[in-house]
Amino acid sequence: MSSGKSIYDIMAGLEPLVERRNELPLAEFNEAHYAIKMVSKAVTANIKTIDPEVRVTLCDWQDKLMERAIQAPRSYEAKNVYTPAIHAYRRWKNVELMKDKGLAGYLLAKKIQGQATMYFCTKAEDYPYLSDLPDMQLLFSDEKSGLPEVYYEHLLRDYQKMDVLVLHGMYIETIPYLNEYRKLRPDGKVYCGLDMNSWWMQTTIWDNPQVHQFFNQCDFVATSCRMLRDALNRNPSVNFSCRFLPNGFYNSTGSKVTADSKVKENTILTVGRIGTPQKNNDEMLIAFARVAHKLPNWKLKLVGTIEPEYNSTINEYFSLVPSLKDRVIFTGPIFDKAKLSEEYAKAKIFILSSTEEGGTPNVYAEALFHGCMFITSSIDGADDITNFNELGYKYKIGDTAALEKVMVKLCNNATQADFDVHIPKALDYANRYFDWGTNIDKLALELFG
């Protein structure tokens, strides 16, 4: 594999196998899967002399093959999984237990029959979501946040238990911590989920020796949208193969998840921190006000904690369009997961007007499993969210006129008959890419397979 030509020849032979991956006999499939993995490693090791588009293709192939690879039954040796809050040496928040920050390590530990631990946290009463995660262990500390000594003292004391390290992003604090972990546990497994967006990717100095060392010490690196995955693999200064592992849905309460056209109402829903600059809620509010007369039977519902300073914006909005007071609904936060599930189930359309997100946001997977259609701004994960316009539409951030058009278009194509066609497509897509159980199977196989 020393020349580009030999790699291209190998890839030409492997491409038909990728296309026929679901039809191949198991032995032939396993051989192709292994060959692609080895070629990908060779390409990354020589990325400065090979067209990076080769790596883009190979990583896409690996992600596609994983869909079948995880179907084979496997058993794993029990390992302990640790998820530290390294960034700024802060404490984990309750809400992060039910996001990728907590679920990746928790569900991986359950898969391999080990113990999941998150550190550090404030005090037990600050984590009501812990009741939905049996066997999750939280480590508490009375020390002030921002003190690295707390983390390093724990590492030196407990490193023998830390078989798997789950990191979320590469930060100034993460780099030296991983260096110390590797000195103590060269045999440990490290997964780094890149909780990143385009700005983060473009401002990182990827050929920095410390950055290279960090990723050389990771066993598996993934991002939560394919656009970022491909952009990283296209960069010859990136010294790792980036894969696709999006934020998934985990039904922690076991309550019924309903995706039924018969219960859908004429509601456009968003869920998140209402009023933050990142969520850009003004854009959806303005667009809805401008098209409300064309959609007389529709409501816009915003679920989530409202930033205090945003209340003046809400008051001004209703003073300008008082006729919408009954049609634009601010519910505040809904912490009861079962009740929140009911909101997703009733909504026909889920909308994101964000200026940026770290790949695919957590709320997307929840809406997808409830059979929603989607409107999204042109954030990094927009094509993953709409599955390239099969499940909804995207518009350019800041183009309110374009948002108005897609809002009217999608609402007019959201009948019960439309949802009878849409929901099976949405659920198939959800189960393939946005189910935490499926994604943990992929992660476990990458780390231990």
Give a description of the structure.
This protein is of the alpha/beta class and 449 residues long. Helices cover 44% and strands 14% of the residues. The strands form 2 sheets. It has a 7-stranded parallel β-sheet. The model has no long low-confidence stretch (mean pLDDT 95).
Distance between the termini: 24 Å
Helix content: 40-55%
Shape: globular
What is the N-to-C order of secondary-structure elements (H for helix, E for strand)?
HHHEHEEHEHEHHEHEEHEHEHEHEHEHHH
Summarize the structure.
This protein is of the alpha/beta class and 449 residues long. It has helices spanning 4-19, 26-45, 52-69, 100-111, 148-158, 174-184, 198-203, 209-216, 226-233, 281-291, 311-320, 337-346, 362-369, 382-386, 400-412, 416-433, 436-448, and strands at 81-84, 116-121, 137-140, 164-168, 189-194, 220-223, 243-244, 265-271, 299-303, 328-332, 347-352, 373-377, 392-395.
